[in-house]
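Notes from the pairing session

We agreed to fold both candidates in a single pass and log them together. This is the raw record for the first candidate, unedited. Please don't reformat it; downstream parsing expects exactly this layout.

Candidate A
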Amino acid sequence: MSAMTIQPLTAARLDDYLHFFDHLAFIDNPHWASCYCYFYLADHDEREWQSRTGAENRAAMQWLIASNRAHGYLAYLDDEPVGWCHAGPRAYFPVLQNDADLRAADIDISEVGSIVCFIVAHGYRQRGVATRLLDAACIGFKAQGLLVAEAYPRMGRTSDAGNHHGPLSMYLNAGFQIVREYRDVAVVRRTL
């Protein structure tokens, strides 16, 4: 495999992000192609998620990225984006605080960075791309002055699509610990 680089999402990388989501991210999972990783940013109380179109989600993310209000990391091989990790300050993701099960009453959310999604293009999975993205997210959180990294992997998932939150084993191998479980979700944290 060629040398991989991980870059934070910026307005200058908007075209790479859109290329990845428009052409690579969901080749083998087309029914998720409309998300554009906007799920955790959308106001679900204002409008039901299922009623949003791919074009609306794309436009919303395009605006956030162009105005440097989106957070995350892109993985590149030979200047081609092959992976994405949606990660940023926990307060940036309203869905987390609005979900009774994910609400963090036991920690100051201003100190927490959240990792909500991974997407690795088909053909590049099982090569360490997600692990590299996870490492970059944790380094980025620490550089922002955040004290804790938190994620929400689903337990018992074996498919690539089912592990879009990142597999639990990846987090445990990276030093995260389970702080609580509900239904099929493990909330994991690591001190930075």
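Candidate B (folded immediately after A)
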Amino acid sequence: MSGVRSGICRNQCFKQCLLVLALWPWSPVHGQELSLEQAEAQALLRDPAIEAVQSRKTALDELEVTAGELPDPMLKFGVMSLPLDSFQLGQEPMTQVQLGVVQRFPRGDSRALRAEQFQERSRALDKVIEDQRLRIRLAVREHFLDVLKQHRLGVINAEAEGVFADLAQITQDY
């Protein structure tokens, strides 16, 4: 159980680091403030997990199309009763050369059912993508509030520093 928790913690830490790196160019240190909507948009735009799930969904959509199709026909070639000592087709009257096309037809509705199975998996991945987007938005909002809180605390501390400097000056004057 602790292995699962440590994996989750590492995953969350990794995502937080990615978020900080994604938002770094827009931080107030660089002179441009970042709104919550901009932060969310940047985090959603740069998330590799969403891109990975989207790629899997695209692959499942392609498999859905191919699952509903008939399998490719196969070309069949064979030689029967070929004399192995001379390999001449006319030596024995029983020598036969066969050429044909083989097409498999799956039983029942298996093609349609398999295509429906891929379609359902693709729909499930839509929900995974939406869940990932909501998790990213939640993380961005939490971090945004943390940054805003730290910024406000810095302003309060700067004001308090000025007040205490004035207080120290007043106490030294008496």
